[in-house]
Amino acid sequence: MEWILILALAFWVWRQGRRIEALQRRIETLELREPSPAQAAADVLLLDTPLPQASNDDEAFEIEEDGPAAPAPADALILAAPPPPREEEPLLLTEALPEPAPQRRRQLEQWLAENGLAWMGGGAFALGGIMLVAIAAQQSWFSPLVRLYCALALGAGLIGASEWLLRRPGAHRLAAALIAGAGAATFYATIWAGHALYGFIGAGAAVWALFLCALVFMALALRHGQALAVMAIFAAFMAPALAGGALPGVSALLYLGAVAAAGFAVAALRRWAWAGVASLLSLYFWFAAAIAGEDVRQGLALAAFAAIGGAAMSLRKPRGAEEAGALNWARVQKLGPAVAISISSVALLWVWGAAAASPQGAVAGPAWVGAMLVALAAGAVRARLAAPAVLAVAIGALVAGFMLYLGVRSYTLPPSLYPFMLFAAGIVAAAAMNARPHRRERATLSIAGAAGAGLLTLLAAFSVPDWHGIAAWTPLFLGAAALLSLAAVQAQSVAQPRASAAVDAWAVAGAALAFAGVESLVGAEWRTAAHAGLAFGFAFALNARGWRALAWAALGAGALALAHGFSDATVGGAMAGGLLQALTTLGLAAGLLFAASWIAAKARTPSSISEALSAGAIILALLGVYLLLRWIAAGGAGAPLRSLYGSCFARLRADGRRTHGAGAATAKTGAHRRLARTCADGAGGFANRAEQWADAQSVVGPQPRGDWRAGAV
Predict the structure, then answer these.
(1) pTM of the entire structure?
(2) What is the full DSSP assignment across 62-114?
């Protein structure tokens, strides 16, 4: 059935070719009838002879043909000699006519008559050659060696027929190119069958044979044009599937790599946009097939081939006069790296998911390829071949891949995950710093690089079994120091580092890693003082550098110190017997925050930063006083406090009364008298309430130290 369709399409293409040849001969005949350029120039009408003026004489003039001419009267009109030419240049009717209106786009019928049928016939020839190999293998018509020889003869015959068609006068170049492409695809299918189906050709010989096929394909494409390139690329990529061979092992990968290399080489050499697009689409098709077949290694290799090929095509500069069209080489050179790198980076997420679901959980392949794509994107951005957003996409896909692996993984994490995450963090930071985009795009890359490196370092610390071990806090502090150093390097390349978003991104990421490092290294009872120490350090750096991000970092460290001050580890520990340690932590934190507030006030920052730090210090100091009083009220001092409370409050009440009397005696106005009375009443009322609170505490008595919340007022 297939051969009937192939023969019918071939006859249809032959008939259409004959009709096109007849039309071309008629066009040549009509062109011969057109006047030559010299004759057309001779027919130009010259208006350099003036027309005679109108005359009112009714007499007829007779001119004798023989004999001397009679003398003419003085007033006679002489037509023998023309008047001298005018000084003005003659008027030539050689002005260019207006260009005709553009013709309407070709309709579907016209395209089918001129190009569509040729494409269908060429595709039928290619499918026929490949299916002939497959059907012969299934039906066992001849011996395997004879089948391969017949397939080679068919391919050579198709290439010879294309050459014969090309050399004929008025030949249809598209039909010749497509038939040659069918022959090249038949060669690819034959070599594949000899290696994968029959085993006549080893892996090394198959690679060399495919390399020779690639050379033949390139030569044919250079002679026949872009149509052959597109046809042969698609046919060669589809040859293994149509020939009945699966795609496992290194041999299939070498085959696809050879075809892709040939396609990208021809596309770049001749600046054929559609040939490059055909190679990319074919590689992504086989990538999807490999992931569907759970072949992670082959999927990684194909994604890498596509990204490298798409980036390599941009190295070929377009011509000065590029052909018109929706897809030309200028557009491929501009968008090729961005499209290829972005698609390959996002496609790796499927590889991460497949690797996490497997028991082995191999992380080396996705990590290496993802880091390679990040470095490739950075090189493309630096060479101005891709936009900075491409590097941001590659970094985001790499971070998302590690997060997907950790989220999906149900087996034990492999030991190689930790070093690969740290390695990827270093690659991300180096790529973002070395991309060197335009100054308007520095903030975008700095945010992407700092966020990516910081998140990968945090993920590495979270992946270790012991969060408080050296394997967790060491990369956090080292990463914080590295990111802050990169912020200093970035500050040297910007005009205003104090208000630069690029510098802020690196500094904020470093501060975040420092916060996480304190949480990992320092115990819960000392974290208040540790974060206050970070606030002091950031305030000191703020005074030296002036970066606004350091002000935010100091404020964040103060907020964390305040939060840990009210935590169960501090307050509960004080009530459980660790009052001295809690008071020491709170006092040290309050002092550091006061110092940070004083240093921040000296820097050129908003006053709200220093005020917030000083407010945090006051709150921590008051918290320490409250814990001390609460401990005393609970009986921690070991002595009765009734007499002490009574004497203190009585003295306070007496002072309030004296103040009231003095105010009444010295006040000269009613307002002063009322103010003095109000102050005295307030002091007396506070003394009464304090005395009542002391009575309640003496009745309740000391509470058990294990439950510090019981009996709280």
Answers:
(1) 0.68
(2) ---SSSPPPPPPTTPPP-SSPPPPPSSPPPBS-PPPPPPPPPPPPPHHHHIII
